[in-house]
């Protein structure tokens, strides 16, 4: 019985440390739809709880959760054929206008550019780490970020 308690408390530590990050990734994928992002984030943690090969707390856990979040979101999007919509009011709570405007513009970027910008600029991953997480080359990440910055600069007026 003690091992079950240990596993749950280990899970609680992972959940507490990484839920916000996983939710933000899902939020980016679902263009600000909070209900879909919450469903996806919960699915990611259910997979973590049920996985035989899920890593313990640490950097590998973070990477595992990011990749799993991306895969869950892509699967959900394929299944439901979602359409882009505006950010809902829940995403706007407590945020100033400038932040909402920038996040809204980021949400309209193509998926690869959006994820490269998010992982690199918001989560602090290097281009090499972002490339590993996205399953592409480092130079491709630089291209995604460069294109995204040009689009954001044009849309947001410098």
From TrEMBL:
Residues 15-82 form the RNA polymerase sigma-70 region domain. GO terms for biological process: DNA-templated transcription initiation. InterPro entries: RNA_pol_sigma-70-like, RNA_pol_sigma-70_dom, RNA_pol_sigma70_r2, RNA_pol_sigma70_r4_t2, RNA_pol_sigma_r2, RNA_pol_sigma_r3/r4-like, WH-like_DNA-bd_sf. One of its GO terms (molecular function) is sigma factor activity. Keywords: DNA-binding, Sigma factor, Transcription, Transcription regulation. CDD domains: Sigma70_r4. Residues 100-152 form the RNA polymerase sigma factor 70 region 4 type domain. It comes from the Bacteria. NCBIfam families: sigma70-ECF. Belongs to the sigma-70 factor family. ECF subfamily. This is RNA polymerase sigma-70 factor, ECF subfamily. It comes from Ruminococcus albus.
């Amino acid at each position: 019985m003690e091992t079950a308690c240990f596993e749950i408390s280990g899970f609680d530590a992972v959940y507490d440390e990484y839920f916000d990050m996983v939710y933000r990734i899902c939020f980016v994928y679902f263009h600000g739809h909070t209900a879909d992002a919450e469903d996806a984030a919960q699915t990611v943690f259910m997979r973590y709880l049920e996985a035989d090969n899920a890593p313990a707390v640490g950097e590998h856990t973070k990477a595992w959760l990011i990749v799993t979040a991306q895969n869950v979101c892509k699967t959900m999007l394929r299944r439901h054929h979602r359409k882009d919509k505006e950010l809902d009011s829940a995403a706007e709570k407590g945020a100033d206008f400038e932040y909402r405007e920038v996040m809204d513009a980021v949400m309209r970027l193509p998926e690869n550019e959006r994820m490269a910008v998010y992982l690199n600029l918001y989560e602090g991953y290097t281009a090499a780490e972002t490339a590993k997480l996205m399953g592409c080359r480092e130079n491709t990440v630089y291209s995604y970020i460069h294109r995204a910055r040009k689009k954001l600069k044009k849309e947001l007026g410098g």
